Amino acid sequence: MDHGLPCDTPAVAVERGTTPLQRTVFAELKDFASEIQSAGLVSPTLIIIGKAVELSPLWPHCTKESSSLVETR
Predict the structure, then answer these.
(1) CB 60 within 8 A of CB 68
(2) pLDDT 10s per residue in the chain (73 long)?
(3) Which of 9, 18, 55, 63 sits between 20 and 30 A of 29, alpha carbons compared?
(4) What SUPFAM superfamilies would the database entry show (predicted)?
(5) d(CA 60, CA 63)
(6) pTM to 2 decimals?
(7) Cβ neighbours of residue 15 under 8 Å, at least 6 residues apart?
(8) Exposed (0-12), middle (13-18) or buried (19+): which is 1, by Cβ within 10 Å?
(9) Residue 8 lies in a domain
(10) Hey, what's the torsion of the CAs at 57, 54, 47, 4, to 10 degrees?
(11) Residues pairing with 25 in the sheet
(12) Cα–Cα distance measured from residue 58 to residue 3, given in angstroms and rounded to the nearest whole number
């Protein structure tokens, strides 16, 4: 946001991707850091920021204010 991205830019953090322990946090950029911290994600975690995140069927479409932690096991 400090470099010009809108605060409602979609973002996702994927912890331990493609493993049985994968966890995913979706949030708008303005809430992203706090949501990652709240979820307690650890390394390795891949972070994706931008419109590509909206292509995920797991992106929280229902409200602009929502964020979510998705655990896939």
Answers:
(1) yes
(2) 888 999 999 999 999 999 999 999 999 999 999 999 999 999 999 999 999 999 998 887 544 455 566 666 5
(3) 18
(4) Tetrapyrrole methylase
(5) 7
(6) 0.80
(7) 21, 22, 23, 24, 25, 41, 42, 44, 45
(8) exposed
(9) yes
(10) -170
(11) 13, 69
(12) 27
Asked if residue 64 is part of any domain, the answer here is: no
Q: In the chain, how many domains are there?
A: 1
**What CATH number is given to the structural domain containing 8?**
3.30.950.10
Query: DSSP label at 58?
Result: T
CA distance 50 to 48: 7
Amino acid 59: pLDDT = 87
Task: State the residue range of the domain holding 13.
Answer: 1-56
Sheet (strand 10-15) strand order: 45-49, 10-15, 23-28, 68-71
Q: Is residue 52 part of a domain?
A: yes
